[in-house]
Amino acid sequence: MTESNITEKPQMSLTTKIMIAMISGALLGILINLFFKEVAFVETYLTGGLFNVVGTVFVKSLKMMVVPLVFVSLVCGVTALGDVKALGRIGGKALVLYLFTTALAISIALTIAVTISPGAGFETSEQAAPFEVKEAPSLAQVIIDMVPKNPLEAMAEGNMLPIIVFALLFGIAITLAGDRGRHVYEFFTDLNEVIMQMVYIIMKLAPYGVFCLIATTFAKQGIDIILPLLAYFLVMVSALLLHGIGTFTLLLSLFVRVNPFTFFKKIRPMLAFAFSTASSNATIPISLNTVQERLGVKQSVSSFTVPLGATINMDGTAIMQGVATVFIANVYGVDLTVGDYLTVILTATLASIGTAGVPGVGLIMLALVLDQVGLPVEGIALIIGVDRLLDMIRTAVNVTGDATVSCLIAKSEKAMDMDIFNDPQAGIIKGKVTTPT
Ligand code: ASP
């Protein structure tokens, strides 16, 4: 049990504040887009000024916490586990489940997209600026890059996989170092608490940050941009919702045997963070906090599964790739074979490994997928206009996948505290905070 300094305000009120911030930010953004877009004052001082500064500072504060939090939390988690075999088992389960859920997600997306067939008869004159294709890393390179040649360099660059590898080794070494290792472990446990307090401080600023981020996005995007791509947009949102709610509800009810409503209710702030930042990576501090303290997954599991998931598990992104591939094939009048669909599933699933969860990364991976099935990558230019909004939704699905798989693994490892899961007040930021270790 640890004392939290953020007292008085229960987390429910923080959740409510964040929700209000999201809705009012969206409304204001739409208003600006419709009526004040050309007004220089609004552009200079609001969207390009105040909102931009507050939103960017908020995202940067979150990112600032990612590396220290992941490293310290993972060292604590591995040391608390104290068992290399268990670590290997958890790692294996995480990898299999993350790949499985991603493959499932893209299969669902392909099925829906092929059935509804968006894009047939679409006017290619809507084409936006040409899309520049960036190289996606090969699987061999991802494996090589997993081992850092310099851990500080990996931390400075925020490369998640090498940081995870270094932290795992560090934690194992602490366990092996006996008594001396214990001192280091105790220090890290204290440090972990200090870093969590920093996260709480940033979370308190969330309503302002979320408001500004959402207002800026909607002011820039508007809703009119969706209209020419309405079919694509709706198919995408349906597939995202079906997987994000349907699949995860099934997995949670069948294998974790928990009430999915409780799960979704408790992860709302995490979803809001993911939605407004469009980055699973920047959401890691909140995801870790939510999975551990609200859902009751012990740190020995969550400290590993959450950062790993934010890096390699992208169900929402895979869904986008499935729907986008079918859409682009339809627009260009290309018939995809069953073999092509299987290639799409395989490529998208493997491409998600080693591609960090940052805004827009899905499009880079989409280029790789299109290339594999011989579709023109320029097709990405057709959908790029609505991608930011969809990115926000799919990032929320991505982090929901991370939380679901964390619960699945924790349940199978007997590392899930059901009292915490079932307690509506658990982990709420007021007075005492339970920190499962
Ligand atoms: N923005 C997504 C994420 O951070 C990745 C993507 O689909 O572009 O999870």
Class from helix and strand fractions:
mainly alpha
Oligomer: single chain
Helical content stands at over 70%
* Rg, nearest Å: 22 Å
Question: DSSP strand (E) fraction?
Answer: under 5%
**Mean residue pLDDT:** 87
Number of helices: 19
Tally of DSSP β-strands: 2
Q: Residue ranges: pLDDT <50 for 5 or more in a row? A: 1-10, 431-437
| Ligand types | aspartic acid
- End-to-end distance: 10 Å
Query: Strand-and-helix sequence, N→C?
Result: EHHHHHHHHHHHHHHHHHHHE
Gross morphology: globular
Strand order of the largest sheet: 1-2
Largest sheet: 2 strands, antiparallel
Fold and architecture overview:
The chain has 437 residues and is mainly α. It is 74% helix and 1% strand. It has a two-stranded antiparallel ribbon with strand order 1-2. α1 runs parallel beside α8 (206-221). The protein is globular and about 70 Å long. Residues 1-10 and 431-437 have low confidence and may be disordered. Aspartic acid is lined by residues 278-281, 314, 317, 357-362, 391, 394-395, 398.
Summary of the model, kept short:
The chain is 74% helix and 1% strand. By secondary structure, it is mainly alpha-helical.
